[in-house]
Design a protein that fits this description.
- With 124 residues, the chain is an all-alpha fold.
- The chain has a single domain, classed as 23S rRNA-intervening sequence (de novo design (two linked rop proteins)).
- It is 80% helix and 0% strand.
- It is built from 4 helices and no strands.
- Helix 2 packs antiparallel against helix 3 and helix 3 runs antiparallel to helix 4.
- The chain is elongated.
- The protein starts with a helix and ends in a 9-residue tail after the last helix.
- The model has no long low-confidence stretch (mean pLDDT 91).
- This is Four helix bundle protein.
């Protein structure tokens, strides 16, 4: 099984590939930059979480990654509808987005459970 650090890096590279395939008009450029920024930051949040000094810090960093994933999903939805892309263009990327949301959500829940923290915030 691929570790999450590698998987989030692969996700960032996929975001770059999606961005490169977008139309060069102003809508494609503006929405694409947003997708590129949020999609490539997920792995950075995960790496920061791995080096957290406490469970609370870990959960907060994972929460940041979840926020970026949700934002990436939003930009993909807008791109899909506004740019009339072929359905295959974003399908795999959106599937990976949803899988990473589920994985990071579970990571935060597990960390809270192990430490006795109460669930709250975006990771929870």
């Amino acid at each position: 099984m691929e570790d999450l650090e590698s998987r989030t890096k692969r996700y960032a590279l996929a975001a770059i590939r999606v961005y490169r395939r977008l139309p060069g008009d102003s809508v494609g450029r503006v929405l694409g930059r947003q997708l590129l920024r949020s999609g490539t930051s997920v792995g950075a949040h995960y790496r920061e979480a791995k080096r957290a000094r406490s469970t609370a810090e870990f959960v907060a960093k994972i929460g940041g990654g979840l926020q970026e994933l949700e934002e990436t999903r939003y930009w993909c939805e807008l791109l899909d509808e506004a740019c009339e892309l072929p359905s295959s263009h974003l399908k795999t990327f959106l599937q990976e987005t949803d899988e990473l949301i589920a994985i990071l959500t579970q990571c935060a829940k597990n960390a809270r459970h192990r430490s006795g923290m109460k669930a709250k915030g975006p990771a929870g």
